[in-house]
Amino acid sequence: MKVAIVGYPNVGKSSLVNRLTESREAVVHERPGVTRDRKELQTDWNGRPLTLIDTGGVDLEDRAELARAVHEQVRAALADADAAVLVVDAKAGPRPGDYEIADLLRRVPAPVLVAVNKVDSARDIPLAAEFHSLGLGEPIAVSAAQGLGTGDLLDRIVELVPDAPQRDAGDEDAVRLAIIGRPNVGKSSLVNRFAGADRVIVSPVAGTTRDAIDLAIEFEGRGLILIDTAGLRRQAKVGESIEYYTSLRSRRAAERSDVAFVVCDAIEGITAQDLRIAELAMRSGCATGLVLNKWDLADAIDLEHERARAHQKLRLRPRVLTASAKSGRNVQRLLVEAIALADRRAGRIPTPQLNRFLSDVVAIRQPPAGGPSRGGHRLRLLFMTQTSERPPRFSIQVNSRARVTRDYAYFIENRLRDRFRLEGVPVIIDFVERSERRGRGRGRRAA
After folding, report:
1. 3-class SS shares of the chain: helix, strand, coil, % to 5
2. What are the angstrom distances between the C-alpha of 419 and each of 285, 334, 415?
3. 230 vs 243: CA distance, rounded Å
4. How far apart are CA 181 and CA 300, in angstroms?
5. Distance between CA atoms of 67 and 32, rounded to whole angstroms?
6. Closest by CA position to 264, among listed 209, 310, 329
7. Using alpha carbons only, what angle is made at residue 197 by residues 196 and 202, rounded to the nearest 5 degrees?
8. Confidence class for position 30, pLDDT limits 50, 70, 90
């Protein structure tokens, strides 16, 4: 059952959604207009699964382009919902904007409830009666801050649509693809192109996206969950609290993803901040690719130079892809690459193949000699196997962990990526002395 949470700006919609879902997923701030896109959050009540759709504040008198885009997102949420909750501010009383939204809701086929928020104590409960004038039935007094009345609200929501069809909450095996990058490089435009609809707001104003928005799609029989994120600025420029928390959500989006695409502006090429964002994604454990968006406008960019620079600066050597969200060029290819990266991150390489690889590595470049301080014997690579996935982890048995040099470990790692197409996939290699194979290794290398 999907429930759209709508209302005038700054009435506490996101705070109420966080309270009802027992989370802090929706961005909350005292400044009005922080929420812009619609965001779906899962919860349940008395065994009944619910999807709450947090929406941006609706001021129908605001004719600005961004406000109109928010209104379209709210209308889309209402069209997709089984029920709606109009949130109003008890302290402010009924306002002209509330009546305008109520009139809009009367034309929606879904049933509607009125939640009178900011009723933070028993003496405030009579304030809810004023909202009978909206003509949408009995108002329900609630407090997102204190939790007052939220159980009653959930009871009424469940009673409102008792026979609502159960909706698929999403394929647990779906590939989670985070779209991250600097502000105004075209992340939301790319997400909309993937989805085939204007699912998230696009504006030339940097910083339009404030939250991490999850969107489920299907591509060639595979489920994907696209995660549109707020732009990541340099840390020194993240001064205000809104930007700090939206940046934090962008970082968390990478942590819960299988794959991250770092979107870059092809006109500017790969910048130092793009490389920092790619490093952030790689440290989170997800597979990573760089996407030069706006490629249709980048006549002067040397693609091979950009790829060489990315491979030189980024240890995981991610692929550098080109696309245009505006024209649709190469967009489908990006989804193919995302699925392939997720599969390689989750895949398992058979042990015989790994040991043939180990033999080839030794044939190409002999392991280092120990020297007097290390017993004078050469390092020997005895056996290799994969121990886990997501990200892939490998164990190489050696005759002496102390003889493994950093340079030779990097050589093995790079050859491993080349052989098994692990570009952009985090890899962990443990070097374990043969005598310790039944216990813990004394050292390891992590990529």
Report:
1. 35, 20, 40
2. 20, 22, 6
3. 9
4. 22
5. 12
6. 310
7. 120
8. very low
Residue of 180, 173, 160 lying closest to 83 (CA atoms): 160
Average pLDDT, the chain: 83
Tell me how far CA of residue 133 lies from CA of 12, 13, 53, 160, 336, in angstroms. Answer: 20, 20, 25, 21, 54
CA–CA dist 199, 183 (Å, integer): 18
| Segments of 273-374 assigned E as strands | 287-293, 320-322
Cβ-contact 447, 426 below 8 angstroms: yes
pTM: 0.66
- The residue behind tokens 């870059």 is 264
35-64: b (≥16 Cβ within 10 Å) or e: bbbbbbbebebeeeebbbbbbbbbbeeeee
Q: How many residues does the chain have?
A: 447
Phi, psi of 428 (to 5 degrees): -120, 130
| In the block, residue with structure tokens 């794959």 | 259
How many CB atoms are closer than 10 A to CB 370? Answer: 16
Q: Answer positive or negative: Cα dihedral of 374, 379, 383, 386.
A: positive
Place of tokens 């790994």: 354
Q: Is the pLDDT of residue 169 over 70?
A: no
- Tell me the β-bridge partners of 203: none
Strands of 317-358, DSSP E: 320-322
Yes or no: say if 149 and 122 are a contact pair by the CB < 8 Å rule: no
Q: What is the pLDDT of residues 179-224, one digit of tens each?
A: 998 888 888 889 888 988 766 544 444 444 445 577 888 998 899 9
pLDDT digits (tens, 9 = 90+) for 250-285: 677 788 899 999 999 999 999 999 998 898 888 888
- Quote the CA–CA distance of 308 and 290 in Å, as a whole number: 12
- CA 23 to chain centroid, in Å, comes to 16
Strand partners, 386: 394
Closest CA to 269 of 310, 228, 241, 222: 310
